[in-house]
Amino acid sequence: MPVPSRRAWLKTMLAGVAGALAGGVAAVRSATSASAADSASTAASAAAARAARGTKLEHAPFRPGMPVGARPYGLPAEAQQHVVRRWLKWMLPSRLTNASFTPLAELEGIITPNGLVFERHHAGVPAIDPARFSLAVHGLVERPLALSLDDLKRLPSVSRIHFLECAGNNSLNWQRPAVNAVQFTHGLLSCCEWTGVPLMEVLRLCGVSDRAQWLLAEGADGAAYARSVPRALWDEAIIAFAQNGEALRPEQGFPLRLIVPGTEGSLNVKWLHRLKTGDEPWLTREETARYADLQDDGRARLFTLVQEVNSVITLPCPEKPLKGHGRQRLSGIAWSGHGRIAAVDVSFDGGVNWQPARLEEPVLPKCLTRFSLPFEWKGEELLLQSRAVDEKGNVQPTHDEMLKVKSARQVYHNNAITTWRVLNSGEVRHVRLA
Ligand code: CO
Questions:
Q1: N or C: which end of the chain has fewer CB within 10 A?
Q2: pLDDT average, residue stretch 372-391
Q3: How far does the centroid of ligand 1 lie from the alpha carbon of residue 271, in Å?
Q4: What is the CB neighbour count within 10 angstroms for residue 141?
C-alpha cells in the first residue's frame, strides 16, 4: 500500500478533527497511527474521513533508538515474531526426518526470505566444514575430479529465481481438507534467487561421455540421500552455493545443493558432495520406496519429477480473514514446473464464474508469480478459488479432474484447486466442494 504524503495525511486528520468538533461528538478511539495512515491513503472517500475522526497520532517519545551495529546480522521487527516456519508434530515420526512449512500468508512478492524457506530433511542438518569439503565427479567421464569450494567458485556462475516445492506439498489434503491454514496446505513451497555454477560447466570440465544419460546426485547427510537425474534436466541445473545473495543456509544444503528448476524439491539434493554419471538410473530408496506415485493396481509411477501448474490464494486465507466490509485485496501465488504462468482466474462462487486476476511483475519461468484482484465484500459467504494456466497450456485441475489421471492412493503431486469458504464473519475455512 502506498505511503500517503504527510500533507495528505494531515489534511485528513484535520478534516476528521473538524468534523468531530462540529458534530459536538468526540468519539475516542484507540486507533494506532498505522491504521490512521491506512485511512489517509483513500483521503477522498467519506469513509476515510469517518475513520480518521477522533483518532490520535500515537507514537513512542522522540528519543535515540538502537545504535548501528547492535544487530550485526539483521532481524525482522519485533511485531513480526509470529512470522516463522512451523511444523506438525503428528505428520512424521521423527524430528530428524521431518519438514517445516513456509508462512505463505505473511509473505509479499515472490521471494522467500532465507530464514523462512521450508525444510525437509531425511537425517537432520549435517554440520559441514567448508574448508574440508569437496565435490567428487566421476562415472562416465574422461577425467574424474574432486573440486573444492574455491575451485567451483572460480568457474562461471549464474543467478536465477526459481520456486522449490516438495512433491508432498498439499499431500495432507488428498482425502479431505485436513489442515486449515495455507502454511500447512501449501507451505512446502519457497522461491529464491539461486546462485551457482551450471551443472554442464562441471560435467564438460570432466569430459562427460555421450553415453551418460543419468546423473546420481548424493548428499553428505546422515541418510546419504541420493537421486537419479535424467539428462533432459541437466541443461538448466545449477550447482548452487548461494540463495538470495548469501551462502546457502545449513538447512538448505550448505555449502552446495543441486537446483533442478521446476522439479520436485527432493531432486534438488542438499549438502551435495558427489555426482556420478551413468547410462541408467540407480533406483535409490528415495526414488522407489519414496517419491514414487503408488497407483490403484499396486504398481508405482517412478520419476514424476516436474511440479505441475498450481496456485493458491494467500489473502484472504484461514490465517488472514476478511476484516470489515468494502473494498478488499485478493492476492495469491501461482507456479508451474513447465514454464511461465500465463493466466490466473479467480472464482468467488466455487468455480461457477471466473474472472482474470492481474499477474504482478516479474513473471518468470519456473518461478512463483504473484497475482491479485480487488473486490468488494458486503459480508456475503464466498467460495474462493484460483485456477492457474501455464504457458504450455496446462490448466490447474479440480480435485475430481485430477483423480481422473492420478490415483487416490498417491501421496505426492496434489495440484488441485483449493477452495476457501469465507463466512459472513470474514473467517476463512478450507473446504472441498462435492
Ligand atoms: Co514425483
A1: C
A2: 98
A3: 21
A4: 20
